[in-house]
Specification:
This protein is of the alpha/beta class. The chain has one domain: 3-Layer(aba) Sandwich (Rossmann fold), CATH 3.40.50.1010. It contains six helices and six strands, in the order E-H-H-E-H-H-E-H-H-E-E-E. Strands 3-2-1-4-6-5 form a six-stranded mixed beta sheet. The radius of gyration is 14 Å and the shape is globular. The relative contact order is 0.19. The mean pLDDT is about 95.
């Protein structure tokens, strides 16, 4: 199943503040590497780099964060366009989403993903033909 991964899933794999979520995130990412079904966007890569270097308890050196962004850049990456931004602005209003979450949904839909893994969006909801799943939900 083609799976779009939100930034928070990747971050948990490298953030040890929540060991249970870290374990789950690492297993998900490992499976997506193995099956080659992971997808993301330039937005996710940007957020990943910034958060790895600024928001973890123990931030990563910039060189390691660059290397990780480059590694995940080998997945199919949807490059955000002006059209995506305008569509996200519409989704933001129609579905009461934050703009950034709406942009994730647009990128996932345009990349052909069947689901989005995210902690930030409403689990079980389908928007723009993409199902949202929170892998940490109990």
């Amino acid at each position: 199943m083609r799976t779009f991964v939100d930034t928070n899933i990747v971050l948990y794999a490298y953030d040890q503040r929540e060991p249970e979520k870290s374990t789950i995130a690492r297993a998900i990412l490992s499976d997506l590497w193995r099956t080659r079904e992971g997808q993301l966007s330039t937005q996710v890569l940007q957020e990943l780099y910034v958060n790895l270097t600024r928001k973890l308890r123990v931030v990563l050196p910039r060189s390691k964060a660059r290397a990780l962004a480059g590694r995940y850049g080998r997945w199919p990456v949807h490059a955000i366009t002006t059209g995506d931004i305008l569509e996200a602005a519409d989704l933001e209003q129609r579905h009461s989403l934050s703009f950034w979450d709406a942009l994730i949904v647009v990128a996932a839909a345009r990349s052909g993903a069947e689901r989005i893994l995210s902690e930030d969006l409403q689990h079980g909801r389908t928007i723009a033909g993409v199902r949202i799943e929170n892998p940490f939900r109990r």
